[in-house]
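Incident review: delayed structure delivery

Summary: a single-chain prediction request sat in the queue longer than the usual turnaround. Root cause was a stuck worker, restarted by the on-call engineer. No data loss occurred. The affected request and its eventual output are reproduced below so the record is complete for anyone auditing the incident later.

Affected input:
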Amino acid sequence: MVRPRAEQPTPAELEILKALWEREGPATVRDVLEVVNLKHDPPRAYTSVMSLMNVMVEKGLLGRFPRGRAFVYVPAEPRDRTLRSLLGETLERAYSGSASLLVAHLLDQSSPSAEELDQIRALLDAYEVRGSSEIKEGGAPCKRSRPKRPRG
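Output delivered after worker restart:
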């Protein structure tokens, strides 16, 4: 039986996406491999990263375009949209939609500094002023779209 592909990126796929988002432009497998291997011991193999990136193209997480004799890859969605989608799925699946429970666990896990707590309070104040009747930008899971071809 074939396992259905997940909508959200796996941890390894998220690592690839992070490398591409940091680069802020098209990248080859070798470019991504260099970034990924800065954080891995033992280093990952070129073919492993290439296979993973090809699966990500099939899932709609990456776009792939020819450039010379190689392919370049770009994320299909911007970082903020992907992260909002991941968080939205976690909120629903793990916390049954309870923002307060998610925030309580987040604060327990991350032990934020006094400065971070001040930033969080400011965000809460701004959210309260904005009002809950406004439409939340990017709050719903994102739909996959075909990425635009990079220039160059």
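Verification: Residues 11-75 form a domain with the Arc Repressor Mutant, subunit A fold (CATH 1.10.10.10).
Action items: add queue-age alerting; document worker restart procedure.
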